[in-house]
Amino acid sequence: MFKQRYLPLWITTSLLMVLFLIGSMQFDGFASSRVVMNLFSDNAFLMITAIGMTLVIISGGIDLSVGAVIALSGVATSVLITQYQWHPLAAFALILPAGTLFGALMGTIIYSYRLQPFIVTLAGMFLARGLATTLSEQSLEIDHPFYDFVADFGFELPGAAWLDLSTLIFASVFLLAILLMHYSRLGNNIYALGGNEHSAQLMGVPVKRTTITIYAASSFLATLAGIVFTFYTFSGYALAAVGVELDAIAAVVIGGTLLTGGRGFVAGTILGVLLMGVIQTYISFDGSLSSWWTKIVIGLLLFFFIVLQKGLNGKPAKTITSH
Amino acid sequence: MKDSIQTVSAGADHKLSEQDLAEAKAARYQAGKSNSVGRYIWPVCALALLLAVNLLLDASFFSISYQDGRFYGSLIDILNRSAPVALLAIGMSLVIATGGIDLSVGAVMAIVGAVCANLLITDISVFAVIIIGLSTGILAGVINGALVSYLSIQPIVATLLLMVAGRGVAQLINQGQIVTFQNDTFSAIGVGNWLGLPMPVWLVIATLLFCQLLVRRTALGLFIEAVGCNASASRYMGINDRHVKLFAYAMAGLCAAMAGMIATADIQGSDANNAGLWLELDAILAVVIGGAALTGGRFSLALSIIGALIIQTLATTIIVSGLPAKFNLLIKAIVILVVLLLQSEKFRNQCKQLLRISARGDV
């Protein structure tokens, strides 16, 4: 059991190592601390989103709205800063709770009306994109001294690498998520809920509160990811981050989290994002391979890990489709 | 004495239960009856209401003119534009009825478009191109179906694979370019017309008739509903649930192939990035508006088509009313939320309670 539980993690880690080694042998400058740090800073927003998605998937749900929430958060931030002359920090202070409330509402609808998470968050996705396009159809550029400060902020690391604010934010979210999932009662409740909602209820898990908290947390993290995304692009655009929900789900699965819920690790998800990032870096270093190979390779990886999950679980769940 | 009392009471119980059974039976038939009428009333009312709003906004909305051998008018336009989503909705209804979902139909549209466009550049006959295109769609559907039924992967995840990888495959076929072609026969699928109506509308009508006959005049529809209600129970009854699921996904692939051909013929080219983008969501929405249960077991092809028409009419209404097109998504989201909540029994009860309270307040 101990071995089986960690097997997907080991496979992801070894794939990551092997791909990185192949890259370093083939190209000069692949195995540098700069490339590694860029993996983190380029994917910080995706990692933050994927951590939220991990919580949701471990609880047995799914959140399709995260990409749209990232876009909405970015657009709202830039509208507040550029059109209403708010200080960015004040804008963040308004947007983060608002995003959390959005998720809490979805959680409430899912729990209270016994609707499928998939369809409710799909509606949430339309709603968030719709709100974002209503706020601004054009891409809004953010030009504020605070953003210049954020761009310059960071620590020099050996090997011309740069530890920027996005990576720091990701690191703190990651630590908090690990504490939450593995060392708190809420974490236990989330695992219990994903294992079997009915048994969890009988054991005394507050199902309603946990469900709402999970979706609120996912939307909070997506909102935060949207803000981090504005640090990266210096703009807010309603059609940004299209398909990020799929990348996040892919990272969660590649990271060894069971899609039916109940089992998985936050750390695995980060490995999943890193693996996808290394594939992208490899393809961009190679130059002759086109970017669409990324999608195909990620699709194949997803397939491999899903079949692996089925194999590890022993007998296939027969009733999944009838629920 | 005791015995007699027991037999009497048992007899009374027996009689009562028989009466109960008869009542329950009658109630069930009644419920089924009223339910089926109610099922058709609401979506049709919604469509009629939307059309009425359009008529108020624009008095000439219903006018249809006949020119150059085809009809013109807003209504024809709605029919024509809703055709791809309507086709996808037919396939999606079958898949959702088996308790599944197909997220890959948009990507399959892109793949089929890419296959057709690249074949049309060569000297292959149009007929062969269409056959190969349709087969590609069926193949994609069979892959989805096999993942769901033989590997027992959750439908959302199994079809997510093709949704992610499919666009990559389409771009690979196109080598990252937008492939354009000149072929009047193939373009006719998208822009041609027959007996005054656009070709896509005829395609929808033909597919609907074919599927409706297949599903309601053979036992297949019953099998699909049985599998959607409870896959294991239907297996014990002797239905091969795996084959039924495989069939549903293959049909979804076939419908996606036709929709992909319409989209490709429409612009005389294949754009792997944008062909059918987000149409899977519109198709799911159409099926949900049509009143199908997302948990499977209840579906109506005609209602799903009405759902697709409602979505297109809504988009047209937004344009006619002069609202900026950017509100389209927002309004769509609100419509889905309302439809979803209305499907929930608890929400309906809450609404009834609210109505009762307000009625009491009036008294």
Automatic annotation (TrEMBL), chain A:
Q: Where does it localize?
A: Cell inner membrane
Q: What is this protein called?
A: Sugar ABC transporter permease YjfF
Which keywords has UniProt assigned to this entry? Answer: Cell membrane, Membrane, Transmembrane, Transmembrane helix
Superkingdom to which the source organism belongs: Bacteria
Q: Name one GO cellular component term.
A: plasma membrane
Primary site of residence: membrane
Q: Which one Pfam family would you cite for this protein?
A: BPD_transp_2
What is the membrane topology listed in the Swiss-Prot or TrEMBL record?
Multi-pass membrane protein
The species is: Thalassotalea mangrovi
Q: Which residues cross the membrane?
A: 7-27, 39-58, 65-84, 90-111, 118-140, 160-181, 212-232, 238-258, 265-285, 291-308
Q: Does the keyword Transmembrane helix apply?
A: yes
An MF annotation (GO) of this entry? transmembrane transporter activity
Secretion signal, residue range per the UniProt entry: none
Instruction: State the similarity comment.
Output: Belongs to the binding-protein-dependent transport system permease family. AraH/RbsC subfamily.
TrEMBL record, chain B:
How does this protein sit in the membrane? Multi-pass membrane protein
Family designation: Belongs to the binding-protein-dependent transport system permease family. AraH/RbsC subfamily.
GO molecular function (one): transmembrane transporter activity
InterPro entries reported for this sequence:
ABC_transp_permease
Where is this chain's protein located in or outside the cell?
Answer: Cell inner membrane
The membrane-spanning stretches of this chain are 40-64, 85-112, 124-143, 155-174, 194-215, 246-263, 275-294, 301-321, 327-344
What Pfam families has UniProt attached to this entry? BPD_transp_2
Alphabetic keyword roster:
Cell membrane, Membrane, Transmembrane, Transmembrane helix
Tell me the protein's name: ABC transporter permease
The taxonomy runs: Bacteria, Pseudomonadati, Pseudomonadota, Gammaproteobacteria, Alteromonadales
- What organism is recorded for this protein? Thalassotalea mangrovi
| One Gene Ontology CC term in the entry | plasma membrane
